[in-house]
Amino acid sequence: MASFAYICKKTRKSTFDIIVEKLPHAWEKVRKHPKKNTSGVDGENIHSYTKNYSDKLILLADELKSGSFRFLPLKRATVDKGREILVQNIRERIVSKAIYIVAKEILDLLNSNHDYSRPIYYKFKKEEEKYNGIPLAVKVIQNHFEAGYTWVL
User: Fold this and answer.
1) CA separation, residue 32 to residues 37, 46, 83, 111, 142 (Å)
2) What is the CA radius of gyration of the chain?
3) What angle do CA 123, 143, 108 make, to 5 degrees?
4) Comparing C-alpha atoms, which of 114, 142, 153 is closest to residue 16?
5) Phi, psi (rounded to 5 degrees) for 85
6) Angle between helices 4-11 and 90-112 (to 10 degrees)
7) Is the pLDDT score of 131 beyond 50?
């Protein structure tokens, strides 16, 4: 697999363009999720999105490119033992998954050349892993905030 930086340099594409290109791959990941019947505030679930999904992905890509895509409010749902969760719409799950896929590729690239004498290591928490770097991450985010940054990815 070619590195993310190589792909950007070779194709002259921005990170945003690559996120848009990853929408079909993200759709496949969302479609295979075991909680298929969960719907967002728009009432659409995986089964209903599957109908004409290719047209819907093209429309979603066009909305992202034009800047008209907006995240809707999250839906509150009660699950086992009265626990509440917040649920995204299918379209938002696809966009979030595409962003995750591209961000993970970038972080993997950063880590491949990581100088382990430095205290910061970039990592996503996988669901099956336990990662205790949260206090370090919070400290790094606070340092960036104090330095004047308002966004941290």
Assistant:
1) 12, 9, 24, 28, 36
2) 18
3) 20
4) 153
5) -130, 160
6) 100
7) no
pLDDT given at position 138: 66
In angstroms, the CA 24 to CA 15 distance is 16
CA nearest to 72, candidates 36, 100, 96, 41: 41
User: How far is it, in rounded angstroms, from Cα 93 to Cα 58?
Assistant: 15
Q: Measured in Å, how far apart are the chain's first and last C-alpha atoms?
A: 24
- Listed residue (37, 47, 38, 94) closest to 71, CA to CA: 94
pLDDT digits (tens, 9 = 90+) for 43-88: 888 888 888 899 999 999 999 888 888 888 888 888 888 888 888 8
Phi and psi angles of residue 147, each rounded to the nearest 5 degrees, phi first: -80, 0
pLDDT digits 0-9 by tens, 10-48: 556 777 888 889 999 999 999 888 776 778 888 888 888
Block residue for tokens 């990662």: 131
What's the CA gap between 127 and 130, in Å, rounded? 8
